[in-house]
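Hey, weird one. I pasted the Histidine--tRNA ligase sequence into the form twice and got a warning about non-standard characters only the second time. First submission, copied straight from the form history:
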Amino acid sequence: MSTEAPSDAPITDAPRPEARGPRGFQDRRGPDLIAERRIVERVSAVYERWGFEPLETSAFEYADALGKFLPDADRPNEGVFALQDDDDQWMALRYDLTAPLARYAAQNWETLPKPFRRYAFGPVWRNEKPGPGRFREFIQCDADTVGSDRPEADAEILALAVEGLTAAGLDRDQAQIKVSNRKLFDGLFGAGGIDDPAQRLTALRAIDKFDRLGWEGVSALLGEGRLDESGDYTKGAQLPTVVISTVERFLASAGQANLSRADTLAAVAGAGDLGAAGEEALKELQAIDAALGIMGVDQTAVRFDPTVVRGLEYYTGVVFEAELLLPTTDDKGRPVRFGSIGGGGRYDDLVARFTGQSVPATGFSFGVSRLAAALRASGRDPAGEARGPVVVIAFSDADMAHYLGAVAELRAAGIAAELYLGRAGMKAQMKYADRRGAPVAVMLGGDEIAAGTVTLKDLDAGRRLSQAVSDNAEWKQARPGQQTLPRDQMVAAIRAILEGSSISD
């Protein structure tokens, strides 16, 4: 067999495709994947401890099961990635993990324990314009209870979300979940005589901009409309002045972050006539507050905020949004705001799309990829102490049996290890081990094999010591982190290095 290095010359003169990835999709290597997997592992452990069982649904769903994401009935290719099956039915990659749950629950309702408590994680796909931090494929993690209309079910999801975000790597004061109830606005609009669904939707979209525009901008959008800084004019909801005044008092409590949940509800109740639906919403929020208190959920971890408006055509009752409070910066050190990292609420009509019968449901979802990115932007390594494998250096083809034996012994001892299988020299192999993040390089040269020894280079120690040595000759003479010892002590010595207690020369 030839030992010549592979040629760099083209194999063929035929046209070659450009090596490029699709816009909005990412190629991710070890540290990013390890970070996301560790987040999922930790959060999944919390969910299972709370009695939620895992469920995995397929990446594809029939397009009509996704309902609200289909603007074009003939070709549903906006919002989702869709294709036509061989029986002419449209299938689409799942847009989230909730619509597949609703389909699964409707399909298997007779055999499921009720309420059905499940959690799920996996990639979702959205056919939207990509941008900074906005991808067409990303990982979500959900927990849901289907079949319970009790406000305690909402409270449990909220408490679970708090513990899950903590397990994912956030301190208790680094995220806050804001809670409201869609029925508050339903009651407010109903009491004000606003019955037109389109007018209500326009008003809710205006209120959803409260954080960005403040009351002045929102009030304009609730009235005649608003001219923004770019010169674009947005037509308003044209609500009566008396209703706009009620909304203003209603939203005023949102600015009082120091209020307890109970005090916030009292402020909302005193804002004006909220109608029957609004009174029902207040009772539900009071019950949620009581349950959160019993479960020991701090007032700052979950607070009531009537400005929260999520899923305008999706949620039917309580809604919540998790906001990241952790200071974050971009790769140039400039402050960057991540904002929402998750959310959820009650969606009692989703299963009914399939069955015609209302089935109550509530849940929480957070973006795993987004949270991992936020942790990195805060200066943390969400992958933790992730290391590459121990690398066994290959000096000659004649001694390959010794190298294979060493790497097999390490793996059998439960230590991640690899044998360098390229054809580069010693210097390039050490550079390879460093790029792999290897903690140790194992060297079995001819002298070591003849003497029954092995030389170990503690690369972690070398990296640390290199920061304190300025002279290259001094560095080479010191050979930091390097030791030669009997071959039968290799596993124990490497395990000691990995545990942070390197054996001295």
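That's the output from the first submission. The warning seems to come from a hidden character in my clipboard, not from the data itself. DSSP finds 17 helices and 20 strands in the chain.
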